[in-house]
Amino acid sequence: MSNSNNNNSSVDQQHFKSFSLTATCNSDNSETIVTFSNGLTLNINSPSTTTISPLELQLASLCACENITLKYILKTQQEHYPFVIKEMNYKKVEGIIDTRGFRGELDTESNNEMFYSGFVGLNIECEIRVDKETTTGRIITQEDINKLKEQVEKQCPIHAMYKLLNNKCKINSQWKLIE
Fold first, then answer.
1. Crossing angle for the helix pair 142-155 and 157-164, nearest 10 degrees?
2. Dist. CA 79–CA 81, nearest whole Å
3. pTM over cut 0.90
4. How far apart, in whole angstroms, are the C-alpha atoms of residue 153 and residue 172?
């Protein structure tokens, strides 16, 4: 990656990590077979009983990325989050798109620009089960979970992509502490 192609030209390149994959697209049925760098493959298509859609994959990626980020934060920032998460259960992850953008329709009420085709809304409901006491003996509260959620959302790369679209994508994310 050359310094001229990124906004972090003063940042040491050792902090960057590249991800890659290959994809074969079948023009007959919209099927895309993705092969990842570890050799695993994934069939992506319009939603059906045997494939997942690209939008469902984005939502699943958000959940997985938040979980990985959560584990990293709990490991590296124990002085701020001295507790153990037993379970993180996404009860609802819903992405809302305006189908007019996908169809290429123009918004005649605002400069005849095409409607935005990405997610215009995300609704996330997550339940967090923890050991009730911290490693310091303090009881975990909903406020602790809210602070952790805010930190996860700041550090999660997938969540950051949606934050960049904050004027287009409204995110409603609720994490609830459960017994």
1. 80
2. 6
3. no
4. 12
Phi, psi of 163 (to 5 degrees): -60, -35
CB 96 within 8 A of CB 123: yes
* Identity at 48, one-letter amino acid code: S
Over its length of 179 residues, how does the chain's per-residue pLDDT go in tens digits?
Answer: 444 445 555 667 788 888 888 888 877 777 888 888 888 888 888 777 777 888 999 999 999 999 999 999 999 998 898 888 899 999 999 999 989 988 999 888 877 788 888 888 999 999 999 887 677 778 889 999 999 999 999 999 999 888 887 678 889 999 999 97
How far apart CA 74 and CA 49 sit, in angstroms, is: 37
The span from the CA of 144 to the CA of 139, in Å, is: 10
